[in-house]
Amino acid sequence: MSLTKIKTRPKDGATEILVLVNHPMETGQRVDPKTKEKIPAHWVQKLSIELNGKTVADVDMGVAISKDPLLAIVVKSAKNGDKVKVSWSDNKGEKGGTDATIGAA
Amino acid sequence: MTPMNRRTFLKGTVAGSVLAVAASAGLLAPTRVLAAAWPASAFEAKSIDDALKGLYGTTATAESKAITIKAPIQAENGAVVPITVSTTLANVEAIAIMVAGNANPLVANVALSGAEGYFSARMKMGKTSDVKVVVKSGGKLHTASQQIKVTVGGCGG
After folding, report:
1. What is the per-residue burial (b if ≥16 Cβ within 10 Å, else e) of B46-74?
2. What is the CATH number of domain A4-97?
3. Among positive and negative, which fits the CA dihedral B11, B27, B121, A95?
4. Do B25 and A93 touch (CB under 8 A)?
5. Which pTM value belongs to this model?
6. Interface ipTM above 0.95
7. What would you report as the CA-atom Rg of chain A, rounded to the nearest whole angstrom?
8. Chain B residues in contact with A75 (beta carbon < 8 A)
9. Is A34 within 8 Å of A101 (Cβ atoms)?
10. What is the rounded distance in angstroms from the CA atom of residue B5 to the CA atom of residue B2?
11. Which CATH architecture fits B5-150?
């Protein structure tokens, strides 16, 4: 099962929201060294970051995003106690996500 | 030497079956509010111009000094190249990252609403090439680019 993590930290008077998704991000171009067959593509296509229920970032990703995507955005209006929610979906229809509270350990 | 997977990926073209998967996945788009369908045409584009058309319907861009790209000048491992884009432009609506040397240049596009003009990610690069960042602000497209050198040795897939 894919794991999703959120980390927040202050950055120049604003809040940086970092999102890490454990995902293989297969490009569909790699060849299995044993079977010599192409490994089917499997990558995260959409990822959205919500702050207190409002979408602040909507990311469309291609296969060229590295394995285990780590993304970061900066939100100025965020403050301690605000709720961050991340949800993603990949090309196989798998979904994942998590939530966190800014300022919480 | 055995074929190097990373390069195989970048040199090859996307197989038809992959396109089909991508297209059907687009139809199964996430149910999240405001989440538009994944822009398959932009991600499958083979050139930056085509990707721009797929995303924004235009290729009219202007160079901007207000965009900062923070990325290594030389990346040892093309599978993980960190890139951070920040801009002082106001009202940033979207930031797209494209790698000219990749088979499909568009790496990611982020639509921002209420967030600052900042986006950071890690991406794959097949070879040394220019990275182009497109920032949509106030309905206009602003760009900046930087060359990133990718060390070929030690790729090992």
Report:
1. eebebbbebbbeeeebeebeebebebeee
2. 2.60.40.10
3. negative
4. yes
5. 0.81
6. no
7. 16
8. 114-116
9. no
10. 9
11. Sandwich (2.60)
Of B28, B120, B123, which has the smallest distance from its Cβ to A64's Cβ?
Answer: B123
Question: No. of H helices and E strands in chain A?
Answer: 0, 7
Mutate to test the interface with B, among A25, A26, A49, A63 (most CBs of B within 10 A): A63
Which residues of chain A make contact with B116, given a CB cutoff of 8 A? 14, 73-76
Q: Is B112 close to A27, i.e. CB distance below 8 A?
A: no
CB A58 within 8 A of CB A76: no
- pLDDT tens-digit map of B55-114: 998 999 999 999 999 999 998 888 899 999 999 998 999 999 999 989 999 999 999 998
Nearest CA in chain B to A55: B113
Q: Give the span between the Cα atoms of B150 and B128, in whole angstroms.
A: 5
CB atoms A74 and B115 under 8 Å: yes
CB B124 within 8 A of CB B47: no
Strand partners, B136: B94, B141
* Rounded Cα–Cα distance for residues A65 and B16 (Å): 20
Q: Is A48 in contact with B22 (Cβ distance < 8 A)?
A: no
Query: Is A67's Cβ below 8 Å from some Cβ in B?
Result: yes
**pLDDT tens-place string over residues A26-57:** 988 888 888 889 899 999 999 999 999 999 99
